[in-house]
Amino acid sequence: MKHESVETNAGLLIILTLAVISIGGLVEIVPLFYINDTIEEVEGVRPYTPLEQRGRDIYVREGCYTCHSQMVRPFRDEMLRYGHYSLAAESQYDHPFQWGSKRTGPDLARVGGKYSNEWQVQHLIDPQSLVPESIMPGYPWLATTPLDYSDIEGRMIALKRVGVPYSINRDEFEANVEHFGGETALMLDINRAEDNLIAQAQAGNYDGDPSFISEMDAIVAYLQVLGTMVDFNEYSEGYFAEFR
Q1: Is residue 45 a part of any domain in this protein?
Q2: Which parts of the chain fold into alpha helices (H)?
Q3: Cα gap 87→52, rounded to integer Å
């Protein structure tokens, strides 16, 4: 069959197009019926603590996602620059996820622990003081704006309704103890949300000013946890391939 005869016959072209689309769809859909889960089974991934969650809210509010993605793709050049490619498990508690497709700035999926708290604070206040070629605007008000956490319990309850395993009763707390461990389960308890937020902010002193809890404390706490939950040294490359 000549290609010209396909292009000049509308009915045949439609039929062949539908056939190709159907085959492509089946190739992608059928394998899903033969795997138990599309999320990798890894240790360490947990929901964000109240302070980290407020930091994430500020990150979204300030539009950081418009210039920074949080998804290391499985390409050699990206893995050499950013580290192990991103796993679905790492974003399972994100609503919405921050994968992104545009990188005016570098990817932040593995930024946690890469720089000190002091570096992060200075970079947010005046990016050009650390990276002269940066076009990122400064966010100095984060360091002087008190963090509003009066509605943190409500925020956690809303996330709980979409599947994030925060606990609000004894049974849910015990389930988190079994799944995440006792220390983490305490941080995920909605009834202790404000106390946990204050305790983490004071212990971490992320903004370098212990006199009050600022929005800078929250966003730095969030940035410092990104990419730190999974110890990739415990897994072989072949292990993650089983979930694709």
Answers
A1: no
A2: 3-7, 10-29, 50-61, 76-82, 117-125, 152-161, 170-180, 182-187, 193-204, 215-225, 237-241
A3: 20
What range does the domain containing 19 cover? Answer: 3-34
Is 230:89 a contact under the CB 8 Å cutoff? yes
Distance between CA atoms of residues 238 and 244, nearest Å: 10
pLDDT band at 36 (very low <50, low <70, confident <90, very high): confident
- The pair of structure tokens assigned to 26 is 């089946």
Q: Is 210 helix (H, G, I), strand (E, B) or coil?
A: coil
Residue, of 164 and 244, whose pLDDT is higher = 164
Burial class from Cβ neighbours inside 10 Å (0-12, 13-18, 19+) for residue 242 reads exposed
Residue with tokens 């508690």: 93
Phi first, then psi: give them for residue 188, nearest 5 degrees: -100, 5
| Cα–chain center distance at 9 | 49
The answer to whether residue 43 sits within a structural domain is no
C-alpha to C-alpha distance for 66 and 18, rounded to whole angstroms? 36
- Distances 214 to 51, 68, 108, 159, 194 between C-alpha atoms, Å: 11, 23, 22, 23, 14
* Contact present, 154 and 193 (Cβ < 8 Å): no
When divided into structural domains, the chain yields a total of: 2
> How far is the C-alpha of 217 from the C-alpha of 55, rounded, in Å?
8
Q: Select the more confidently predicted residue: 38 or 22.
A: 22
**pTM of the entire predicted model:** 0.85
For residue 40, being part of any structural domain is answered with no
Token representation of residue 4: 């010209």
Q: Please report, for residues 53, 90, 107, 113, the alpha-carbon distance to residue 87 in angstroms, rounded to integers and kept in the order given.
A: 20, 5, 14, 18
